[in-house]
């Protein structure tokens, strides 16, 4: 993707910001065992941190998109990362789960702002024909977070405690804020969406259908993904080092999948990419019960890793490509779809875990991924000329 050097630097800074944001969001699943033990609560109770945070991010993404519409994106994104740093420091210092939960909910206001606004901003830094690649490139930060941030966070949490993992994220957030401030050009202010524009987004069957696909994908994945660490510990006796290795494997294929999508999405088409990547996730969920050893589980996780982050970036590129002028709103709502999926998936998975029905996690997830694929196909067919 050819672009002037200043634009390259800005896109790399946005990618790095998404890396920090993604690492911070995923640190709770990565350290769920340690949080549970440290605060003397059940794993299912600790999982409420995932559901509550996802609920805040779901509501916050569209509401905050409207609230910050007139802000200079350089200032907005840098301040958002500083807020993230402050929240992680505060979370690391609280003494109880009752105090941690509201702090976590306030902290994740940052992802509700950063990821959708970074995607919309990236689309304004490049020519129209490069928007799909630019958006998926910036979203690579989430894949890198799964490769490096999540395993390292889990490793730090396993050996030094979850509080130190949170402090590490706070430090990275400060560095990332400085990077955004130094590289992003000032004066980037996407046109504020009017009430009429928001109405167009909300009343569009295609755009809202795409957001619904995202929500189904999120529920289908997080019903199991949220409790990945505890399941591996209980079912396979995995320790902190093994968990970190498994997270790294998952993340490595996540990065590979997103890189492939970023390279070919403009050629293949975003709709087809969404179908392919969702199918890969469904395949892993279908095969999950057959994994009798950690080695086989690692093999089963490969398709899921390839599809997990790639399908989110494909969905964002799909929305930006369909209606660039409405992207600040549609991408924000898509982020809401991701987060409501996480909230519902974590809650459903917690209920299954608490009721000794863990074998149903992968089955429920597989069924939901099939629903997402069916809806995505229906959306694409509805847009074809008769």
Question: What can be said about this structure in brief?
Answer:
This protein is mostly helical and 386 residues long. 84% of the residues lie in helices and 0% in strands.
Textual characterization of the structure:
This protein has helices at residues 5-30, 32-38, 43-46, 48-67, 73-93, 97-107, 109-124, 131-160, 162-183, 195-203, 205-225, 228-236, 240-268, 270-287, 294-322, 327-354, 359-383. With 386 residues, the chain is mainly α. The radius of gyration is 19 Å and the shape is globular. Keywords: Cell membrane, Membrane, Transmembrane, Transmembrane helix.
Radius of gyration: 19 Å
> What is the helix content?
over 70%
Low-confidence stretches: none
Overall 3D shape: globular
Mean pLDDT equals 85
Q: What is the N-to-C succession of helices and strands? A: HHHHHHHHHHHHHHHHH
| Largest β sheet strand count, sense and barrel closure | none
Tally of helical runs: 17
Q: Report the structural category.
A: mainly alpha
What is the beta-strand fraction?
Answer: under 5%
Query: What is the end-to-end distance?
Result: 35 Å
**Strand count:** 0
Question: What characteristics describe this protein?
Answer:
386 residues, mainly alpha, 84% helix
Q: Secondary-structure map with pairings?
A:
Layout: H1 5-30, H2 32-38, H3 43-46, H4 48-67, H5 73-93, H6 97-107, H7 109-124, H8 131-160, H9 162-183, H10 195-203, H11 205-225, H12 228-236, H13 240-268, H14 270-287, H15 294-322, H16 327-354, H17 359-383
């Amino acid at each position: 993707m050819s672009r002037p050097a200043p634009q390259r630097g800005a896109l790399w800074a946005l990618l790095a910001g998404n890396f920090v944001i993604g690492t911070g969001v995923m640190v709770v699943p990565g350290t769920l065992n340690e949080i549970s033990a440290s605060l003397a609560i059940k794993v299912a109770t600790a999982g409420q941190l995932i559901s509550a945070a996802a609920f805040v991010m779901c509501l916050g993404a569209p509401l905050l998109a409207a609230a910050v519409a007139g802000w200079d994106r350089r200032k907005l994104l840098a301040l958002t990362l500083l807020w993230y740093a402050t929240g992680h420091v505060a979370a690391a210092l609280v003494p109880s789960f009752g105090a941690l939960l509201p702090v976590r909910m306030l902290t994740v206001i940052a992802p509700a702002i950063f990821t959708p606004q970074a995607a919309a901003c990236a689309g304004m830094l490049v020519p129209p024909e490069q928007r799909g690649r630019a958006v998926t490139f910036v979203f690579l930060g989430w894949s890198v977070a799964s490769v490096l941030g999540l395993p390292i966070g889990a490793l730090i949490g396993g050996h030094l405690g979850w509080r130190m993992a949170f402090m590490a994220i706070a430090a990275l957030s400060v560095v990332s804020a400085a990077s955004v401030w130094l590289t992003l050009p000032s004066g980037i202010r996407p046109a504020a969406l009017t009430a009429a524009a928001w109405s167009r987004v909300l009343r569009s069957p295609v755009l809202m259908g795409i957001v619904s696909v995202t929500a189904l994908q999120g529920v289908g994945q997080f019903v199991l993904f949220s409790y990945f660490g505890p399941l591996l510990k209980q079912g396979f006796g995995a320790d902190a080092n093994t968990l970190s290795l498994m997270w790294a494997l998952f993340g490595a294929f996540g990065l590979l999948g997103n890189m492939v999508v970023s390279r070919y999405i403009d050629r293949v088409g975003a709709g087809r990419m969404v179908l392919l990547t969702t199918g890969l996730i469904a395949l892993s969920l279908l095969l999950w019960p057959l994994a009798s050893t950690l080695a086989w589980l690692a093999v089963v996780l490969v398709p899921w890793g390839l599809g997990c982050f790639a399908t989110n970036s494909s969905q964002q590129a799909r929305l930006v490509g369909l209606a660039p002028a409405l992207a600040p709103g549609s991408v924000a709502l898509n982020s809401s779809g991701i987060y409501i999926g996480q909230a519902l998936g974590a809650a459903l998975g917690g209920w299954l875990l608490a009721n000794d029905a863990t074998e149903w996690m992968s089955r429920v997830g597989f069924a939901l991924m099939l629903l997402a694929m069916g809806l995505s196909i229906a959306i694409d067919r509805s847009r074809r000329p008769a």
